[in-house]
Amino acid sequence: MSETRQLTFELGHTPAHGEADFLVGEGNELAYGRIMAFPHWGDPLTLLVGPAKSGKSHLARIFADRSGAVFAGINDLEALARDGGQGALVVEDVDRLDYDEAGLFHLLNQCMRDHRPLLLTASEEVANWPLATDDVRSRARRATAFTLELTDDIQLSHMFVKLFGDRQITVDPKIIAYLVARMERSTEEVVLLVDLMDRLALAKGTAITRSIAAEALDQRQTAHGAQHGHEWENPDDE
């Protein structure tokens, strides 16, 4: 292993949250489309609902980059509503137990009145938020809501990102999408492919490219074919 390669392993891994790093799949494409449609929203309130790791925070950061939105903390809601304005805002985990319900009520009112873009994220539907009154619930229901699902494609994609990140390797999301569409669908296969692609890239002295991904898939498919007594084709139609 080269000295340069060893040095890269000593650096901390920071997850990429840019627009180009978002992996669009069946479970998140509508929510992604909403974020990408900004600033051409017909209404100011947007709600993203989904479990952990479904991409809500990543989309919130993409929205902030596109809009210049401020991430509002629990103690900021009342003041933001009182100060007014039309600057975009993000309130994450709005269904948590410790937020300022009155402040959120006033902020929702202000955003609807002044057509101020507000992106909310939550893990639960509005009906399940732990609210003391229905005032916030009735206003939150006016938001255009999108549900993000943690599909197999998204889970496998996140696993690729995590395992490559652990090795301090940055891979184009399009390559990850290419792999997920063609691989045997299991978490074990992700581990094997990441290791194989890393070794192939090191041997060739290059970054992980589409051709390396294709070569790794071919080798894994050959291994599967030998294991099961036959070979099967890589459905590479691009």
From TrEMBL:
Task: State the InterPro entries in the record.
Answer: P-loop_NTPase
Provide the residue span(s) of the region labelled Disordered.
Answer: 219-238
Q: Where is the signal peptide?
A: none
Ranges that cross the membrane? none
Renumbered to this chain, the Basic and acidic residues biased-composition regions fall at 228-238
Q: Which domain of life is it from?
A: Bacteria
Q: Can you say what this protein is called?
A: Chromosomal replication initiator protein DnaA domain-containing protein
Recite the lineage of the species. Bacteria, Pseudomonadati, Pseudomonadota, Alphaproteobacteria, Hyphomicrobiales
